[in-house]
Structures are given as structure tokens and as C-alpha cells.
Predict the structure.
Amino acid sequence: MGQKPPRAVLSRIRKLAQIARELSEGANFSITRLTSLKSLCEDPEAAARFAVCLANHTSQRASEIFDSEYLSKNEREMHNELIERAVERLGSYVERPSDPKREVLRDLLRELESVNDEYKPIPYGTARMIKNRYILVVEDAVRCVLSPYSAPSWAYRLARDYTERYNPRYATGLIPESAPLVMDIVGFWCEYYSIDRDEL
């Protein structure tokens, strides 16, 4: 962290900042606009720190605004506790990896998966039914850290699940409600490379 970014990296971060600005002004984009994150996350260390950052943001949002007509109060409390535990263990593992911590994360991954484990048949396959979006994002973050060789793909999926929203006016993708979430991503890369946001 704190290293000066190559020009190509700075260009990608600037593009993400521009997307966030345009979203806040009412634009909408395909979620594929985030694919540049794959190249930003080629280094497994950077990808792991990115995953921890988005998991922390998700935990905070879940504890502040988590409300769902599909879940009872007891389920919400259990899910929030699982998110907090997973995020804490994820951060601990990234700071000081060890085999025992990795096994704990694997167990937590199975717990996270079990929350959204319902599948529905659709034409040409099955669709996973998402009961708790926050848990899905934390699950992605854990996978990103546990799978360093496929970290770029998991980091993109993590960012996609973190930022994608639905509104009947725009359909699904990056919509105005996604703007602060995309800015969270920009904020991480600015901090990672010690970039002043005013430079963007």
C-alpha cells in the first residue's frame, strides 16, 4: 500500500470515479463497466484487501439498514452475527494468514452459503434464490481471499454483487443508487495507492 500507481492503473481508477459521478447525476450503466477491477485485482494481496474493505462496508450497512420482509427479527439477528463474525475472521486472516485461520474461513464459507442455498429451476438451468444480499457479498469476499488464483474473477463478482441494484425505471445494473457503492470502491483504490481524490 502507498505505492505510486502505474499510469494504466490510475486511468482505471479515474474511469471508476467518472462512473460514480455520472451515476450520481442520474446515469445508468451495464454492470460490465466494472470489469476493469479484474486487472486492478491481479495481485492476490490487493484483491484480498479489496475484499476485506467491501466486506467491512457490507457489515456496516447490514447492521445499520438491514430490514427485510422475508426474514424474521430472529433471522436478521442471526444473519448479522454471521456477517460480523465472517468479516472479523476475514480481516484477521488477511493480516496474518495461517492454516488454522484458513480452515475457520472455509467453515464460515459453508455457513454463509447455507443462508442462500435455495435454487429454482429456470429454462436452461437453475437460479440461486438470494435471501440475504449482504451475506452473498461477504460470501464473495471470503471466496476472493480463499481463491488467490481466481481472485480477479471473484473480485469482479464481489464488486458486481456489492454495487448492482434494481429500479423499475432503470432495470438492473449500475443505477443512481449504485453511486455511493462505486465510490466505496474508488475510495479503496485511492487509499491503497495513496491517491488524492481531487486528482481524479
In short: The chain is about 65% helix and 10% strand. The beta strands are 118-122, 125-129, 165-167, 171-173. The helical segments are 7-24, 36-40, 44-65, 73-95, 99-115, 133-146, 151-163, 179-192. The two ends are 18 Å apart (CA to CA).
